[in-house]
């Protein structure tokens, strides 16, 4: 999880070879409207994926060129709110046909990939739970203050009504 300050961007790099696969998934966990700009570029700085003001996203690419691939999270649209972003990078290193892999090693790689997927899903669930808990707590606080305001208003109206009704029963004499 990273914090992207207001009006800033955070960039990361992955060195890929031709036919390597990479998937970047992200979710904004806190700050502002829970949106962020994201893009992924190849070594020649051509955009391979771009998301504007998204809460969650995923971009999968297969490298067509050797070199450093850059992915950035930008919070430049916000002047005040810092954003908390959780992201995962999954990479599948391309294995050529000429490389022989033992069946056990292939199974181990598949299990490792599945474990990464499960771990990422659990992190996503934790972020969603945190977001929903924050929403529930915020709603609970608003209901509490609205109830207090209504109670004050009801007691004020009751006090005014008692005062007003007492004035009907007062004897007014002119001497």
TrEMBL record:
Chain ranges passing through the membrane: 145-165
Keyword Chloroplast listed: no
Pfam assignment, any one: EMP24_GP25L
Membrane topology: Single-pass membrane protein; Single-pass type I membrane protein
Main location class: membrane
GO terms under cellular component: endomembrane system; membrane
SUPFAM superfamilies per UniProt: Supernatant protein factor (SPF), C-terminal domain (SSF101576)
Residues of the GOLD domain: 9-91
Keywords, ordered alphabetically: Membrane, Signal, Transmembrane, Transmembrane helix
Compartment(s) of residence: Endomembrane system; Membrane
UniProt superkingdom: Eukaryota
Sequence similarity: Belongs to the EMP24/GP25L family.
Name this protein carries in UniProt: Supernatant protein factor, C-terminal domain-containing protein
Species of origin: Heliocybe sulcata
